[in-house]
Amino acid sequence: MLHFLATRLARAALTILFVVTFAFVVLRLSGDPAMLILSIDVPPEAMVAFRKEWGLDQPIWQQYFTYMLNALSGDFGNSMRDGRPAIDLVLERIPMTLAITIPAFLIKILVGIPSGIFAALHRNSLLDRLTMAVSVAGFTVPSFVLALLLVLVFSVQLGWLPASGNQEWTGAILPIVTLGAAGAAVLARFTRSAMLEVLGQPYIRTASAKGVPWRQVISGHALPNAAIPTVTIVGFMIGSLIAGAIVVESVFAWPGVGRLLVSAVSNRDLAVVQAILLVVAVSMVTANLAVDIAYGWLDPRLRRGRAHA
Questions:
Q1: Is the Cβ–Cβ distance between 268 and 259 less than 8 Å?
Q2: Which region holds residue 273: left if phi is over 0, alpha if psi is between -120 and 50, else beta?
Q3: Within the chain, how many helices (H) and strands (E) appear?
Q4: How confident is the model at residue 281 (pLDDT cuts 50, 70, 90)?
Q5: 8 within 8 A of 274, measured Cβ to Cβ
Q6: Contact assessment for residue 138 and residue 185, using Cβ atoms and an 8 Å cutoff
Q7: Which has the higher per-residue pLDDT, 212 or 130?
Q8: Residue 159: pLDDT above 70?
Q9: Which value, to the nearest 10 degrees, does the dihedral of the CA atoms of residues 114, 118, 123, 128 take?
Q10: Cα(32)–Cα(303) distance, rounded to whole angstroms?
């Protein structure tokens, strides 16, 4: 088990290093921030001074070396817009993002998984087809289209909910529903497929032939085995709690990390973009590590395999 954790942690560190390096290189090769942040009317001397102040006049390898040394000491750079530490700007926005993504995640779990189980247990019935039709619609409709439809119906036509902003708690309802609907549709489809695959296994038929009550077959055999592939999707959703709301936050003008990323990219605020990508990478890697540990808990065969490794 210790070898497994050490291997996974090493892979996680390499993944984060790759993300940080890739983002650093691409951002600096994609254009000069001074051209966007400063006015085109400023004298050339101001441009030169700006680039020197932020180290943009140095070779890219030297910029990268300096950035990594500072990052190891907890300094991830300052925003070129207001001079504040980039990581502080990101951490300030995380609570607002989690305020809509965590309730949306609960909707995904509480609606998607039971719907998928129900559809699998009533395969080819009218309710199964209806559940999957709704699931396909929720999965295929882009989030920004669903967001605009919800605004049109509940904000413009009915006037029940605000279309944007966070001045009132009701402003979070439409973003939460938008995020939750798509995720619930994905979970429903994956859970149904996993359940159908498990229900077709010989050990399910054997348990039924031995007279084991159907409820016990489902709860004791089908659900634990179907949970293994479903955990992968759930883990991905947990890891994307911060990054998964970029489009929705932009549509609803919600002041979270996603909206900050859009603003930072458009303004070429390099340190802020890098800090956001770092936080997203850490959250995704942590979620994947938790999924691997959950696999061992759900499947004893994996635990035995690791013990012998």
A1: no
A2: alpha
A3: 16, 0
A4: confident
A5: no
A6: yes
A7: 130
A8: yes
A9: -80
A10: 51
β-pair partners for 78? 85
**Tokens describing residue 168:** 């009132």
CA 287, CA 295: separation in Å to the nearest integer?
A: 12
pTM, rounded to two decimals: 0.79
**In degrees rounded to 5, what are phi and psi of residue 165?**
85, 175
Percent of the chain past pLDDT 90, that is, above it, reads: 3
Look-up of token digits 């000491």: 73
Q: Under DSSP, is residue 240 helix (H, G, I), strand (E, B) or coil?
A: coil
Ordered domains of the chain (ranges, CATH): 86-197+226-308 (1.10.3720.10)
**Is-contact 85 76, C-beta < 8 A?**
yes
Phi first, then psi, for residue 85 (nearest 5°) are -55, 130
Q: What is the pLDDT of residue 2?
A: 66
Assess contact for 226 and 261: CB atoms under 8 A: no
* Residue 75 per-residue DSSP state: -
Q: Has residue 271 got a pLDDT over 70?
A: yes
pLDDT of residue 72: 86
pLDDT score of 249 more than 60: yes
- Burial bucket for residue 297 (CB in 10 Å: 0-12, 13-18, 19+): exposed
- Cβ atoms 4, 304 nearer than 8 A: no
Query: In the structure encoding, which two tokens stand for residue 256, read together?
Result: 């979270």
Return all residues near 243 (Cβ < 8 A) that are at least 6 apart: 257, 258, 280, 283, 284
**CA distance linking residue 298 with residue 280, whole number of Å:** 27
Q: Residue range 67-95: average pLDDT?
A: 87
Q: Which amino acid is at 17?
A: L
What's at 211, amino acid-wise?
A: G
Amino acid letter for position 58: Q
- CA–CA dist 188, 144 (Å, integer): 21
Residue 85: is its pLDDT beyond 60? yes
